[in-house]
Amino acid sequence: MKLGTLCYVKKDDSYLLLHRIKKENDMHQGLWVGLGGKFEARESPEDCVIREVFEESGLQIENPRLKGILTFDEQFVEDWHVFLFVAESFSGELLKDSPEGHLRWVKENELADLPMYEGDRHFFKWINECKGVFSAKLKYDGRKLLDYQIIEY
Length: 153
Known about the structure:
Elements: E1 2-11, E2 14-20, E3 32-33, H1 45-57, E4 60-62, E5 65-74, E6 80-87, E7 89-91, E8 101-107, H2 118-129, E9 134-141, E10 144-152
Parallel strand pairs: 1-6, 5-9
Antiparallel strand pairs: 1-2, 2-3, 2-8, 4-7, 5-6, 9-10
């Protein structure tokens, strides 16, 4: 089992997304995703998400808000527990060349047009509709979402 973070940086009516097209053998190749990644030793979820967003985007997020805890039940790879954050306050300059792919501010009404994991589409809905923190378990087979469960706290 692995631990990670995922962050949707929000500005006005747009989210900063990463089009994953740069790394060979990338399991997310060709998809638009939020920012984040694996925990390093002795990091809290907040430490991890702040570091990962900075490394991938050049932005220094402030006061990331925990919105959910995601459990990815993968049939042929390791399971993941991911802390999902939203950050609306940040400083710095957006990297012109992210090591992971191309960064772009995507308007909320354009999200449906982008190739992304089916579960990620649910995340945007849950972020906006859940008043508290939620826990969700998503079962995938490769890139196909087979089932999900969500509990709001």
